[in-house]
Amino acid sequence: MSSEHPLLRIRAEVVEEVVEFTLVELSQACNATPAQLAALVAEGVLAPAGQTGDDWRFAGTALRRARLALRLARDLELNPPALALVLDMLDEITSLRARLARQHRP
Amino acid sequence: MQFKDYYEVFGVPRTATQDEIKSAYRKLARKFHPDVSKESDAEARFKEIGEAYEVLKDPEKRAAYDQMGSQWKDGQDFRPPPNWDQGFEFRGADFGGADHSDFFEALFGRRAHGSGARQSRAGAQGEDHHAKIEIDLQDAYRGAQRSLGLRAPAVDATGHVVLRERHIEVTIPKGVRQGQHLRLAGQGTPGFDGGPAGDLYLEIVFRPDARFRVEGRDVYTALSLAPWEAALGATVSVTTPDGGVALKVPAGSAAGRKLRLKAKGIPGREPGDLYAEIAIVIPPADTPEAVAAYQAFASAFTFKPRAESGGPS
């Protein structure tokens, strides 16, 4: 192992603010296949702009959602419709928890 | 190294059928999956469950594991017997889960790099990597520099693959929020045969701070007021992640009311707000003067604190 290289300065971009993914780019970022992501689009888990796979454009926020969906599908052995249901319910739990936290005084 | 009893993880006997193992796994996975679980040790438990399932669901790995005999107890000091795996062939793991225990790696080797979703063909792009980075809320207000050590396999002058460590300095942009991702282009796995390197994604996690609660761009903090400050109004100092600010508390402020400090939340094109949530703190009546003050207070009001409750006062 060697570490004599000079410190490299890296500019980081905030994915959710500035990045838009094509299907292939999002697959690469999620270590998934385009077919796996297309199945998520078909179930409405992901909602890209554009008509067909080739001109789909995913917002930066799709990265988190796609990775969550893929993790759940793999670890809980869920099929796409069950996955879509679980994600909807997780969204609802998140917003209910936020509402609860707002009502609780710190 | 400690022996791991994968059957004990699932609470099933060594004679369990594949279906019984699958059902035990699913039940535990639903309970401990870090994305859905409320358990505090979910991440560690799920790692253990995933590892046990990776071995027991695969008939070949399970047979090899079983062959080591049932005399081992969980946690016992363990060395794999020589040639223990002779006659077995482990196909590439398809479980993309996180790192395994030493015990697992001694038996089944390190997980092959990557999830196997794509082939490593010549000219192909290297894999993208994901990691988490913990920052202070203050870093989101001001931006920050962070130095990171990254390890990546590389081929040395003699043609051997070595693990090379390099350090990079990352600029955390001002305005990042919990759960967002930073993309560091070209900092993932190097490409194959001249292909471009993958990217590195860092998920932002805020280090917990008891003084602040963050919700998206908005930040909440508790503001303790004396009863007279709440009743008469006051100008008080409020601590924000970016330092103290003066806040005018209007007269007649009730406990639980939120005072908004516009654009004092997480900065950005649309900056968040900071909310100071009022809590009224009652001073103790622990000196004769304080007791006298409370008594004067009581006689000055015709105040019925339980007037609306309807119950016995």
What do you see in this structure?
The complex is a heterodimer of chains A (106) and B (313). Helices cover 56% and strands 8% of the residues of chain A. Chain A is built from 5 helices and 4 strands; from the N terminus they run ββαβααβαα. Chain A has a two-stranded antiparallel sheet. Chain A is globular, with a radius of gyration of 18 Å. By secondary structure, chain B is an alpha+beta fold. Chain B folds into 3 domains: 6-108, DnaJ domain (Helix Hairpins, Orthogonal Bundle), CATH 1.10.287.110; 129-206, Urease metallochaperone UreE, N-terminal domain (HSP40/DNAj peptide-binding domain), CATH 2.60.260; 212-300, Sandwich (HSP40/DNAj peptide-binding domain), CATH 2.60.260. Chain B is built from 8 helices and 11 strands. In chain B, β2 (144-155) and β3 form a beta hairpin. Chains A and B meet through β1, β2, α1, α2 and α4 of A and α2, β2, β3, β4 and β5 of B.
Labels describing this entry:
heterodimer; A: 106 residues; mainly alpha; Multidrug-efflux Transporter Regulator, Chain: A, Domain 2; globular; B: 313 residues; Helix Hairpins; HSP40/DNAj peptide-binding domain; four-stranded mixed sheet; three-stranded mixed sheet; flat
